[in-house]
Amino acid sequence: MARGGKRLGAGRPPGTGKYGEPTKAMRLPVSLAEQLTDLLVDWQNAKAQGIAKHVQRLRQSLESPFRLPLYSDAVAAGLPAPATDYVDRELDLNQYLTPHPEASFCVRANGDSMIEAGIHPGDLLVVDTLLEAKDDSVAIVVVDGELTVKRLRWDETTLWLVPENANYLPLRVTEEMNFRVLGVVTNVIHKL
Fold this sequence. Notes:
Blueprint: H1 30-49, H2 51-61, E1 67-71, E2 87-92, H3 93-97, E3 104-108, E4 124-128, E5 138-143, E6 146-154, E7 159-162, E8 171-173, E9 179-189
Antiparallel strand pairs: 1-2, 3-4, 4-9, 5-6, 5-9, 6-7, 7-8
């Protein structure tokens, strides 16, 4: 029996690590290791800052928003009710989904850590960058260069990022972390 080498099924599946894509092990001089670590942190932060470009594009698209007809009768989720064809007004989804459409963006959820809050893998999250993140807000945050969506909980002195799935543990935010709130989630768009 041969020893060493690659074992079938061993290790993390490609693309599921910190960088979201396959990685490659490399040898490099110790003197370059710290510089490379700083470069990777900057690269992760640049990914989060890239969202700002999309927010700007969204602001420009709001100059001619798309409106849908909003009927005055609600649809019965229980027993059927008579329907009318009276259009009450036009609904601007930009205004409906967020109070500040000019400063909002959408991002797709990945993973199941917020499933009990109604956020499923693949759902679209509408994020408002102007709303103040408060205790109990669901927010998009950057932690050490990585984006995540969690519920914010403050106790007397500590901020916690709390998942909505019993299989995950809360994360205590410390001063050593590179942490910032990108925005508050106002709505979840869940495809049926």
